[in-house]
Fold this protein.
Amino acid sequence: MKETYKEIKTIAKTTGLEVNVNRTKMLIHSRRNPRQTGEINMIGDGIEIAEDFIYLGSKSHKDGEENHEITRRVKLANNAYFSLLSVFRSKDIHRAIKTKIYKTMIRPVLYYGCEGWTLNKKEESVINSFERKILRRIYGPIKENGIWRIRYNKELYKLHKEPEISMTIKLKRLQWAGHVQRMDKERIPKKILYSTIDGRRHAGKPRTRWIDAVEEDAKKLMGVRNWKRAAQDREEWRGLIREAKARHRAVAP
């Protein structure tokens, strides 16, 4: 790591650049909850050992868990929603316009970087509940037998004409998986996908790997067992994703 840092500094100097030590952090990923704090000396520079770090808009935490980033994304999307609350409350704006605003200004905030997520049932429930909160605001209650009530989930998605957002995230993950599968073997994402990490894991049920989630989604959502072979054909893969989206839009809960 020190050799890499030294090489970066050397190359930077040849182009007239300098490494900003205050913006450079060291993050140790481990499920053993390492207690390293403070700084590490890196060729004369004091590099801070951080518990988490935001890179390209996504947060990485020292324990390697994704729930930190997912919780953060829900909060950011909720902030975007409340900043537009006056629009969603307005009776002068049509539902179709409100739906477009949700799709273009709130939903992308929620699932930014979702292609790398491995969602569990609890996280899926949180994300779907957040979306339904907004959809209920857009479509409002319904009057039944003279009594107003909130719309059921099936009624919401029938009006929305889109699958649940957790389903959208899974389809986006499959889309990215196909793209990585078609990459040259020398590309970094392809190397990471098929690399293995040495060491011993903790006792108990292992965490679901990203590639395991992709394989499961390919079987359940697309009916494809050998997704790696199917993904080699770009057009076929795109067609399978479109079919899966249309099918699950029709049977949204």
Remarks:
- The chain has a mean pLDDT of 88.
